[in-house]
Amino acid sequence: MKENTPMPQAIDVYFEFSSSYSYICHEKIAELANRHGLDLNWKCISLGAIFKQLNHAMPPLGSPKQKYLWHDVERSARQAGLEYNWPETFPFNSMHAARGFYWISDTAPDQIVPYLKAVFKAAFAEGREVGNPEVLKSIVTSLGLDGDTYLAALSDDSYKSRLKQETIAAQGRDVFGCPTFYFKDEMFWGADRLAALETYIKTEKDT
Hints:
Strand order of the largest sheet: 2-1-3-4
Number of strands: 4
Number of helices: 9
Strand content: 5-15%
Low-confidence stretches: none
Radius of gyration: 17 Å
CATH class: Alpha Beta
Helix content: 40-55%
Order of helices and strands: EHEHHHHHHHEEH
CATH topology: Glutaredoxin
CATH architecture: 3-Layer(aba) Sandwich
Structural class: alpha+beta
Mean pLDDT: 94
Largest sheet: 4 strands, mixed
């Protein structure tokens, strides 16, 4: 009698396309998962909706916290080996990119990682306006996907609802910022928590 094959363990990755730190860690988390033979469940959410519920506001321009965060983003990107250029509009409207993510997850799941990498690169390395659907269409077309069908999906109520439901589900797991990682039921917040996440995986994997 054939034994049941156990489902591979996975890390849940909550990210936002307008999150600098999500961009900074997107390659490192993939490398970490690969080292340990883990899958990644990419979960795109609306951080703005979460911030609104929590009454969280960006630090005022020129404040010590804002200046530190901007400096830390640039430093962290350099340390990750990534080019970083602040988008002209920041934070930018990432709703279309997020809805498009779920269209791709439904229609071309093998393109999920190429898509998120391309959107992140366009936004934070190339300075392109990824809040513009036409820019996103060009990105999708470069991946060999149908840009017109993609554009239609951005206004499809099912993908609007999908993003909303994924965000609500994230709130149900106490996600308050991005990136957030879950392995089993343990939560880690921030691009700088990858080492702690990896230590936990080493002790808890396969248990």
